[in-house]
Amino acid sequence: MIMSAGRYCLRTNVDLLKPESVPEGEDVAATIPEELSEEEQEHLRKELEKVEEEIQTLSQVLAAKERHLADLKRKLGITTLSELKQNISKGLQDVASTNVYKKTSETLSQAGQKASAAFSTVGSVITRKLEDVK
């Protein structure tokens, strides 16, 4: 969604969340009106400065949250290795609970039972033949 404001266009925050809505490279030059008044340029500069400050603040908050997360994990004794083990275990449980896994497991079990029965029959036949030869 593009909202007109004077001689230039402002995108709503919702649009900025979509990567395709933010022009890059040569597309930027194509989207900037050729003539902006001093007032419009000053407004855009202030907005740019504000957004840069917000990004810096968010980066600092994220870094602080990551440190806090690491501290909590350390206090709880959660190591990278234990997290990896837990993730693998959960992944295996997820796979084992799928219908595809269950059907494959049942099919392989049935095939194993049939193969076992066939080997048993072959063994019985061979035993009988050997007894007949004696």
UniProtKB/TrEMBL annotation:
GO biological process, any: B cell differentiation
Extent of the signal sequence: none
Residues forming coiled coils: 34-75
Keywords attached to this entry: Coiled coil
Residue ranges of the TM segments: none
InterPro entries named in the record: TPD52
Keyword set includes Coiled coil: yes
Gene Ontology CC terms, in alphabetical order: cytoplasm
Pfam families named in the record: TPD52 (PF04201)
PANTHER family named in the record: TUMOR PROTEIN D52
Family label: Belongs to the TPD52 family.
Protein name: Tumor protein D52
Species this protein is from: Pelobates cultripes (Western spadefoot toad)
Source organism phylogeny: Eukaryota, Metazoa, Chordata, Craniata, Vertebrata
